[in-house]
Amino acid sequence: MGRVLAVIIWIITLLSVLLFVAGKWWFPEGISQHAPALDRQFLITIVVVGISFTAAQVGLGWMIWKYRDTGSASDRAVYTHGSNRLEVLWTVITAVIFISLGVMGQSVWASLRLHDAPAGSYTVEVVAQQFQWNFHYAGKDNKFGRTDPKFIDDGSLNFIGLDATDTAGADDAVTSALAIPVNRPVELRLRSKDVIHNFWVPQLRFKQDLVPGMEIKVHFTANKVGKYELACAELCGQLHFKMKSYMLVLPEEEIQQLQGMAQEQFQAKMLELLNKYPLPTYR
Amino acid sequence: MSAELHDEVHRHPAPTSFIRKYIFSVDHKVIGIQYIMLALAAVLVGMTMSLLMRLNLSWPGTHWPILETLFPTGAPQGVMTPEFYLSLVTMHGTIMVFFVLTTAPQGGFGNYFLPIQIGAEDMAFPVLNMLSFWVTLVGFIVILLAIFVEGNQALGLWFAEHLGPSFSGGSGTVGPIGGWTGYAPLSALGKIAGPGQGAGMNLWVISIAIFCVGSLLGALNFITTLLNMRTKGMSLMRMPLTCWAWFTTAVLALLSFPVLLGGGILLLLDRIAGTSFFIPSGLYVSGLLSGTNPNFPLHTGGSPILWQHLFWFFGHPEVYIAILPGMGATSHILATFARKPIFGYRAMVFAIFAIGLLGFFVWGHHMFISGMSPYSAIAFSVLTLSIGVPSAVKTFNWIGTLWGARIRFTTAMLFALGFVSLFVAGGITGLILGQSSLDLPMHDTYIVTAHFHLVMGVASIFGMFAALYFWFPKMFGRLMNENLGRIHFWLTFVGVYTIFVPMHIMGIVGMPRRYSSFAEYEFLRTLHPLVMLVSVAAVITISAQLLFYFNVFWSIFKGKKAGDNPWEATTLEWTTATPPPHDNFAGVLPTVYHGPYEFAVPGAPNDYVMQTDVGAEVPSGNGHNGHKH
Questions:
Q1: What CATH number was assigned to the domain covering residues A120-276?
Q2: Is A166's Cβ below 8 Å from some Cβ in B?
Q3: Which of B116, B150, B511, B591 is deepest in the core (most CB within 10 A)?
Q4: Where are the domains of chain A?
Q5: Smallest Cα–Cα separation from B454: which of B512, B482, B487, B495?
Q6: pTM for the complete prediction?
């Protein structure tokens, strides 16, 4: 019985490790400036995790394999209550490894979250609502038109409550897909009209909740042109799984073109761009 | 103090009527069994729900005739709707976390064995103990009611008529939509926010609040009993590790459940009294602006993140409430069947304490991307990684206990060994998820689902399986069938790994949890074979649990008769009759002379020395570690 269990533990360990190193399933290719650093930190961590997991399971299996009851009354287990030296040793070693990992794990976070977006960032307001994304672009004047919940009217397509009397909003555009420039810092100002949503683009290695009552500013830099799927990653109700959109990472000239367009042209151009760029191919 | 006080307070005569003996019993042993039966019922509901979820994910659009009969709205023509699926997610999580993982380990086994293991006649407050069970049962009935009120149109209508419009049900789900975390404001807005947000959500909040009260009563009782009612010679450092685990769990429950209770009451007020604790101003939901319509009153000034802080201040210690008793049982059972003293008893006790203490300072790792301060995320992250240290210390000591052992592979031992393996597998990925940077891609994906199911779900359940196979003979006087038990172990052990290891990969690819379908997303298509593998493994593993249920109920009546100490174990529960008499020790409380795990003592006639064995020579004399011989 014991030997069977030991072997099964080892087989499970081997298959689990194989599943991870096989490479058939992994992150989609990163497209943000911070993605390589994040992927490296993930790799370091998963190597530590993999080694610890394997060592513990192999060790456990070994004890199970080796130390069976022989059925003889005179053959007894080793009588010991432990070893303080060992306790200190393994406490210190794990503490050093785990806490170092924890400290290392802050660097990407700190680079993204502890300072504001650099000056000259391309800014988009994101307003989420149950099962739909709205992206608000400032237009030629680089100024967002004023919004207020009291002007929101989904029926007449004023999804984000733009104030018609504010001239800054005259050249603004609101669409259901996100377009951002490549290789330039992007600031998103995240809001929600109703419940909590989450902005999630796997290739960006980036996620942030959109919380009603708050405006949360985040920033990142995308560095590969293309079209990427954008999902909601915080349970927001019945059609959560369908709250999908796309993020277009565009060359600067296409962004400039868009910026010069008013609502209708902007939307038509977005449709054209969404058709122009294919999704990445996935293995 | 207290010999006389003990007698006065605790000695109650054995009941004679059926009702007082088995239903409204104040005997901790009966109450323990009641808790275990409650958990066995609840886990059946929770498991069925997980089965339905897997069916929906892997075979979407399939007609399940039985669902059509049971839920004509939630599963029209027997096909599950997205809202039906999400209510399954919510109810599965809630029922499993609260009514399974918090009842059986603590209220069940803790209730039955803590007083016996410390040599007491009963809990300190027997009536409170009875109340804690019945309050918990009411909580369970209320959560079951949510299934029917939302699932049944007529009942939903009746609720709306009699309890007011905020209680309207019948939305064709089996409860609310919100996950077990019930994030506001989705959970706070009422039926305007979609299906399941009326009666279902109200009953969900009420059920949890009731559950909190029941758990608090239990926690008070555990702490008082352990501190005041240990028998002569039972010093703290001679207690079995199970007692340390139950004690620490009770302290965690005492400090964390009140916070959830408070949060739950505030949430209920937001829902039915128009307050705004968690609802900010200016919300626009389902085409209505807050304050412009009687169905959506004016809300202003609330904070959605406040709910998350309150919830996770409870929610993270709750993880340890679920797992610590399993750790205790595992230590206890490992030592017994290794025929060897536990390795590093003192370190084990400190590790339990360290886990309990640190467990209160890491709740923010659930909220890295919630919009809270990025600086606090750093503090929470580093603290979270450090909680891995005492967890690793426990693992090392379990493996140390097996070193040089003479292992007896009973079913209980198999499950205890399985616990160690699964605890490592599930716990170790905390090193990934605890890092704020890595949470950016990982948050709310299947790697989170995989992590907490392995470590808090499956490992805890393995601890309980081990505990039941181990203590069953003491509780019912008969052994469970070992052959069935072994088959149950093999299928479950291999099954849970097959279910949860691939989920890590899904998370790395980016699959979000709480999705009723993945068909919308191109980047998830490649995961289809894994989704199918997991579902097939889940169907087999869940079916294997029928063996367990059969074994339990068959063995209660037909199992092989057990003696007083069938496992040749050392602690006090094995010194008394099987099953123990009403006052546990037939009027004479035992005196303790040794530590809890004196196996393989050199020179002793048997390979185990009972804690009460007055004549035995034990080199260390107690459970301390580090003695040189």
A1: 2.60.40.420
A2: no
A3: B150
A4: 2-67+83-112, 120-276
A5: B495
A6: 0.95
